[in-house]
Structures are given as structure tokens and as C-alpha cells.
Specification:
Elements: E1 7-12, H1 14-19, E2 20-30, H2 34-41, E3 51-55, E4 58-62, E5 83-86, H3 89-102, E6 105-114, E7 117-127, H4 130-155
Antiparallel strand pairs: 1-6, 2-5, 2-7, 3-4, 4-5, 6-7
Length: about 160
């Protein structure tokens, strides 16, 4: 059986980039059981309400929904169980300091296969206020309008 190469995204958390200002990102390994991996290979998972916490010097991923494997038996996993994230000790200590001192959150951005292993990209993030979200949407809309106008101008279709 050939070894997998490259990166295949399973699920991404698009809402996290809207709700949070991303300060720093980390790639983590994930402790899983066999039926969870099989379910992930089918592309089934949800990061909608997920978050990470640091407890007793370990990082835990909570509220990630990985549905039960359809061909699993009584050995199937619990869909929303707490899963351990694998990071280097210095990264964990850095995260402990940042989350304690400045009230930042750990938010999962995406889950993917990298060379056959499941990885999670978590972000050190700060929550956005409602007006920040509105500004970001207005900026995105303005950029889209500028790109549209530039495209028309390049094609020779000028509009008033």
C-alpha cells in the first residue's frame, strides 16, 4: 500500500475567522481511536462549537463532533468526546502563559490529513466585537467592488 503524501483538508472552521482575530497558529497532532479515523477518512466532522483548553499542562480539544463510523460495532467512539492534542512542551507552556495573562482563546481552524496522520490547526485568538465584524464585512465588500471595477476596466467595459 503506497504511503499517503500531501495534505487533505477534512473540515475547516470558517466562522472562527469571522468571530476572532487570529494572533498565532499551531499545528497539533490528535489522539484518536480507530473508528474516529475511519469516520474522518469519509470526510465527516464538525468544528462548529469546538474550542481547546489547557488543563494540568495538557491541551484538550472539546466539542468536536466526529460522527460514529457507519460500519462500526460496539467498539464505536462517542461523537463529542474530549480529545487530547499533541504539542511540544515549550508550545504548551507558551499557550498557558498567553491564555492566562491576556484572556485569549484557543480555537480550532481546520482539521486535515498530513502524510496520513490527522492534524488540527489551532489558533490563539481574541474575540471580535460586533462593530469589528461589521467593519471586516464592509472592507470585504469594498474590495470585491474594486476588483469588479478593475476587471471591467481591463476588459474595456467602463461603467459610470
Amino acid at each position: 500500500m503506497p504511503k499517503e503524501r500531501g495534505q487533505k483538508v477534512i473540515v475547516s472552521n470558517r466562522k472562527a475567522r469571522h468571530d476572532y482575530s487570529i494572533l498565532d497558529t499551531y499545528e497539533c497532532g490528535l489522539v484518536l481511536v480507530g473508528t474516529e479515523v475511519k469516520s474522518l477518512r469519509e470526510g465527516k466532522a464538525s468544528l462548529a462549537d469546538a474550542f481547546a483548553t489547557v488543563d494540568d499542562g495538557e491541551v484538550w480539544l472539546r466539542n468536536v463532533h466526529i460522527p460514529e463510523y457507519t460500519q462500526g460495532t460496539w467498539t464505536n467512539h462517542m461523537p463529542r468526546r474530549t480529545r487530547k492534542l499533541l504539542l511540544h512542551r515549550r508550545e504548551i507552556e507558551k499557550l498557558i502563559g498567553k491564555t492566562k495573562e491576556s484572556g485569549l482563546s484557543l480555537v480550532p481552524l481546520s482539521m486535515y490529513f498530513k502524510d496520513g496522520k490527522v492534524k488540527v490547526e489551532i489558533a490563539l485568538a481574541q474575540g471580535k466585537k460586533a462593530y469589528d465584524k461589521r467593519q471586516a464585512l464592509a472592507k470585504r465588500d469594498a474590495d470585491r467592488d474594486i476588483r469588479k471595477a478593475m476587471g471591467r476596466a481591463l476588459k474595456g467595459r467602463f461603467t459610470e
